[in-house]
Design brief:
By secondary structure, this protein is α+β, with helices and mostly antiparallel strands. 21% of the residues lie in helices and 31% in strands. The protein has 16 helices and 50 strands. The strands form 12 sheets. Strands 15, 21, 22, 26, 27, 28, 31, 32, 33 and 34 form a 10-stranded mixed β-sheet that branches. Strands 3, 4, 5, 7, 8 and 9 form a 6-stranded antiparallel β-sheet that branches. A 6-stranded antiparallel β-sheet has the order 14-13-17-11-20-23. Strand 42 (788-790) and strand 43 form a beta hairpin. Bound molecules: beta-D-glucopyranose. Beta-D-glucopyranose binds at residues 471-472, 477, 481, 483-484, 591, 594, 766.
Amino acid sequence: MPGTVVDSLQCEYQTNPLAIHSPRPRLSWISRTDQKNWKQSSYQILVAKSADALSKNSGDLWDSGKIASSQSTQIEYGGSSLASQQAAYWKVRVWADGAAGPVESGVAFWESGLLDRGDWKGQWIGSSVVGGPRTSAASPFLRKAFTLPDRRVRKARLYATALGIYEAYINGQRVGNDVFRPGWTEYRKRVQYNAYDVTTMLAGGANVIGAILGDGWFCGRVQGMDRQHYGDRPRLQAQLVIEFEDGSTQVLSTDPSWRTSTGPILISDMMTGEHYDSRLELPGWNQNDYNDSEWLPVKTFADPGIAIVPSLSPPVRVTKQIAPITPPKKAFTPGWGYSGYIADLGQNMVGYVRITVKAKPGTTVRIRHGEMLEPNGHLYTANLRSAECIDFYTCHSSEAETWEPRFTFHGFRYVEVAAHGECELINVTGVVIHSDTPETGSFECSDPMINQLQHNIQWGQRGNFLEVPTDCPQRDERLGWTGDAQVFIRTAAFNMQVAGFFNKWQQDITDSQTERGSIPMVIPNAGCGPDGGAAWADAAVICPWTVYLCYGDKQVLAEHYDSMAKFAGFLQVSSRDGLRGMKDLKANPGFGDWLALDGSGKTEGGTPKDLISTAFFAYTTRLMSTIATVLGKSDDAAKYAQVADTAKAAFQKRFVTPAGIVAAQTQTSYVLSLHFDLLPDAVRPEAAKMLVNDIKSRGNHLSTGFVGTPYLCHVLTRFGYLDVAYDLLHQKTWPSWMYSVTQGATTIWERWNGWTKETGFADVGMNSYNHYAYGAIGDWLYRTVAGLDSDPAVPGYQRLIIHPRPGGGLTHAKASLQTPYGLAASKWAIEGDKLTLDVTIPPNAFATVHLPTKDGKVHSDGLPAKSTADGTAEFEVGSGVYRFTATA
Ligand code: BGC
């Protein structure tokens, strides 16, 4: 097959992972070729104990044999189970329809980690220094000097975890480039560990391993609460495993012989900020000629008895650095009052700033963070609530000093720098961090304002996908709010590769689920409430279903099926005669249509909570029925279908008149009943008309909140009101997506009216300027405006549906997506009366293309049009690049 390459070999969504626990990890690859209609006909996977054996084509661990199949993602390894720390090298051969001999990939590998609890030889260690619920303690530095024989190191791995967060060092060098490790999990049940290849960091003779511990989510402030939510102080467990060229091994673990000291990090808390006194630095602390005789022995801690698992999600990393659009100020008036200097980074971002300053030793520099400015030009921080978000740095020399915090993050666009003495500010850089989920999607069209909206959605995702999908990154909240994640996940899966991120969070959901089966409001359950209620708790089913749709990942459904079924059981016992959300039943009636501006004057909007609850009851149990079918559980499928039918009948009886009027007549009540197919067929067109009438009566404004907004444009499109959907998209006065864009927003606001000329800043009790929920419109931009979608029956974009719907005066739009099969794209442009559609379908995938046509006259490189019903011409295509034209 000339020109065909097989690459991007991945194991469990990772490239050459070092800690896999599954005995049947899933393998994937991508075939790349320019050939049209390229389809994999067979594959053969070879897995060997060594790269050498694999090069001799031995599959001494597993030879799948030649399997006639087009599957190229998520293929379970079928060989014998690996031992702890064993490596498996693999490659794949791929045959295509109608082509001679196979194409062979390069070599990839995975390693198993420390599979059993007993493989961890060391102890949990930390410092005797401990803070209180309101008092922080300085970050402990830990170190251990050790000697290695003068033999060549063949392979060395560091396995490390912390309750809290850690940074590890070997011989003065930082291990890895990730931050906030090992992340946030439901610590009462599970903590993650990380594995690093440290082979080249060690040498014969004297060596030193060290770590700095931060409070993180474990013992720092979570939400607006006191510190020590999970435990009183951070602790570390690490194991360095060294294998020498002669086959001998040496293991070094955390134990009482490690030594500890405090250093310059006096306070480091995600809400408070970091206080760093550089005069207390410990130069050379992580190198071998350092004298640690003043250091104290570490304190050891009992094993908490929780699972230690490898991390599944991409780590948090620094992904971008931003220079302010305001020039740095050379010097400013000393004092803690308003300093008069604020740097504008031009982008509401999440992370921290790196500063370079020059001042006398002992001068303290203060950095405050805010998303907006007050009308008088001062920093607006009222919306941070109890989160101070202030970093302090104290200088130690008269030279220029560069510093950035380690264990805190802030959500901000503006930073105010002040110093209590004379100080020269030489540089400020915004350092952007987030879970490093690879960017996969792009959307662009002829309207710059819509492009800005897409920019804002992407930045909202960057700022809020930090270990868990959070509601907001700045105020004292930053929690895995289930409802927010549920409404945004489909958009998120376009912008970035989020399968590993959400697989990890799904485990947090399962771990946080209550005995009764309810799903807490926030995951990990930081204590907001045991039952999220409608549209929030339902994330437990909607999120894994979306991961299945977008990545073809059946395992997330299978692994968490029991948890989902338990939740569905809870829904049944907390509902009556198909109705959920009734006041007298022991369940959270929900948050309603959160933040809807529908004239009700209520934060939860005017759509009745029992209507929303019952609609989601029907939707979620319908999804459960489909999921059961996907997993081959036909009895369950029938059972859940019946529950869904009962809920639908109850919905109609209680909330719908024979004429199709839905209770409360809010936009959200129509949107939910139409999107979830809850209305009798006959009244749907009438109901859609009533929805449109309401939009028109408000001067083309939406009135939906968190719950109704994500589906609104989809419903309008489906029922023939594409023009109304575009009107809403273009609307520039609030409530609308474009209003915040007109106000210069660079992220999505929590509230439609977060700031208005008439009333200024909205209620400081809840007013975030980086809240992705309303960014869920991104899904409609990709799927409808550009027309790039996946067929749920052949998930993971193996069968694409290309169905662009030009409108709204746009002259062109395009979207691309790195699918599990490679790059897919849909791009249309209108010139005069000609519509051109360019489509890219990746190898081993296929698509149905719907080409809008006014008069049935189409050009399609000779491809036959299947039908021209509903004003589109339909084509079935295999992989390749295609151009279609039609009369616009
Ligand atoms: C959060 C939301 C969340 C909501 C629940 C808020 O404080 O920021 O985004 O979904 O509470 O009503």
